[in-house]
Amino acid sequence: MFERFHPDAQAAVVHAGDEATRSGRREVGTEHLLLGLLAQPGHAADALTAAGADAAGLRARIPRGDAARPEPLDADALTAASSHPDSAQRASDAGLSASSPDRVRPGQRSDRGGTDRMRMTTDAMRALELAQRTAQRLRHQHVSSGHLLLGIIDQPGTPAVQALTVAGIHVGTLRADVLRRLAAGPDPG
What's the rounded Cα separation, in Å, for the pair 68 and 48? Predict the structure, then answer.
């Protein structure tokens, strides 16, 4: 799924997994992707910073911990799903991890002797799908951090959009800025 992702977007997804883990979550959500984007140089971080977003402020608006325990992941299905236009949804349906863009990380041993692996929420997988579609629509050769940010903010009501709104960031203005930056050229990251 991630072979078309620019290194800045790949790194943001990996960082999002780290953010989810730090916040006690077992799934990467759009809010974690947002924090991952802020941590990586690129159009997304530039646009978010220009809009007044900062990691500490957004992190404070993200709930900690969750009760859901994801099912084990299937790395082979991730590879198979990547060639289909709806690959993100197919991957989500298969319960796949995107915590590492080029491979599924081995899980850590749990107290019960099994493995725990990070997976993505439906909204986060949808953000990846929307990012891919936006890149295709704009005829870009790769999915950059800017495309990923658009995939996140084009889903009203997600935790990421709620955090941005509570922080006083106008999502429509942010979207216009990201599109302007994408039109100006490739991600600097």
Answer: 30
- The CA-CA-CA angle for residues 52, 54, 59, to 5°, reads 135
Side-chain-facing half-sphere of 57: CA atoms under 13 Å: 15
The predicted model scores a pTM of 0.73
Nearest Cα to 6, choosing from 157, 175, 146? 146
Percent of the chain with pLDDT strictly greater than 90: 57
User: What domains appear along the chain, each with residue ranges and CATH number?
Assistant: 7-184 (1.10.1780.10)
Cα 13 vs. chain centroid, distance in angstroms? Answer: 5
**Average pLDDT of the chain to the nearest whole number:** 77
Which helix (H) or strand (E) covers residue 10, if one does?
Answer: helix 7-22
Tokens 């493995």 sit on residue: 115
Q: Are 128 and 1 in contact (CB under 8 A)?
A: yes
Nearest alpha-carbon partner for 25 in 75, 72, 62, 74:
62
